[in-house]
Give the backbone structure.
Amino acid sequence: MHNNKQWTVMVVIAVIALTGWLIAGCGGGGGGSATGVSGSIRLLDNGEPLEGVTVTVDGQQSVSDDGGNFAVTGVPAGTWDVVVTSAFWVPVVDPPEVVVVQDQVTALGLPILMSSFGPPGPPP
């Protein structure tokens, strides 16, 4: 019986510790807020959203969805270059630098504009 009592106490302590860890944000410092960059990718010719464009900020990546939108999370606070790559499209101008603030997703004020490159692009 003595062993069962010790086991029960250890289980209760483990449950309390796990509950506190979950409430605090799974060990992530209690923040829970995303840090990163969001925006959209558009075709220069007609403003159509472009799907499948890879956006990279400090090694973290996102791919634009069917609405041309992207959100790169996990980017540390600081000033970073935004890099866009695609097999079919090329940026019209170099994407901007972005200032990322801790626990915030910085939204780019203007869409990143792309034009055709190489073979015809996929249908929008």
In short: DSSP finds one helix and nine strands in the chain.
